[in-house]
Amino acid sequence: MTELKGEAREVALAEAQAVLAMARDDTMRGRLAELVAAIDDRSVDGDAEELLEQILELGLQAGRIRAHYGPGGEQAALSTLRRLPHGLARAASAREVTEALRALDGTMLERLAITAVAPGSYTLSITANGFEASVRLDAVGARLVSIAT
User: Fold this and answer.
1) What Å distances lie between residue 130 and 8, 89, 104, 123, 149, CA to CA?
2) Does the pLDDT of residue 134 top 90, yes or no?
3) Residue 43, CB half-sphere, CA atoms under 13 Å: how many?
4) Span 15-42, mean pLDDT?
5) pTM above 0.85, yes or no
6) Which of 103, 111, 131, 139 has its CA 20 to 30 A from that of 43?
7) Which pLDDT belongs to residue 48?
8) What is the rounded CA–CA span in Å between residue 93 and residue 145?
9) How do 43-44 and 2-3 pair as beta strands?
10) Sign of torsion, CA 7 13 14 15?
11) What share of the chain is helix, strand, coil (3-state, %, to 5)?
């Protein structure tokens, strides 16, 4: 369950209401109405969390949230995203990759390269003192693809 308060609640509520106003499918309208009610009650869980993530991610990627609510609203939306399930998973994946790459701490970097794999998906290749590591970076998070000596 994710609690929403202050500016984070205001932005989430306004964005959910905006999407609800544009929705034409009855099933989606029902889901959105439930989300609006949950946000109004100051907490979301389960399917509502997933739907809120989708709405906030779309609003952030499109620049709508910053345009309508300014930098403060954008930061509130980002803070909310970090507390939702996919945001927590992305943070955990970043911590795991960071821990794995600690093997390279203190070594001299020989080569860094970023390769575009697909839209919004990249691979970071690192060579340092005989170690080679490859990290995938995308919307899912950061994942260590390989590490070898």
Assistant:
1) 46, 31, 10, 19, 6
2) yes
3) 5
4) 96
5) no
6) 139
7) 95
8) 12
9) antiparallel
10) positive
11) 60, 25, 15
Contacts with 96 (C-beta within 8 Å, 6 or more apart), sequence order = 142, 144
- Nearest Cα residue to 11 out of 70, 88, 91: 70
The owner of tokens 């959105």 is 32
Kindly state the tokens that stand for 4.
């929403």
Amino acid at 96: E
- CA 98, 103, 106, 110 torsion-angle sign: negative
CB 133 within 8 A of CB 104: yes
CA–CA gap between residue 49 and residue 2 (Å, rounded): 7
List strand residue ranges (DSSP E) for the chain, in order.
2-3, 43-44, 109-118, 121-128, 131-138, 141-148
| Residue boundaries of the structural domains of the chain | 2-83, 91-148
Q: Which two structure tokens, joined as six digits, stand for 9?
A: 């609640």
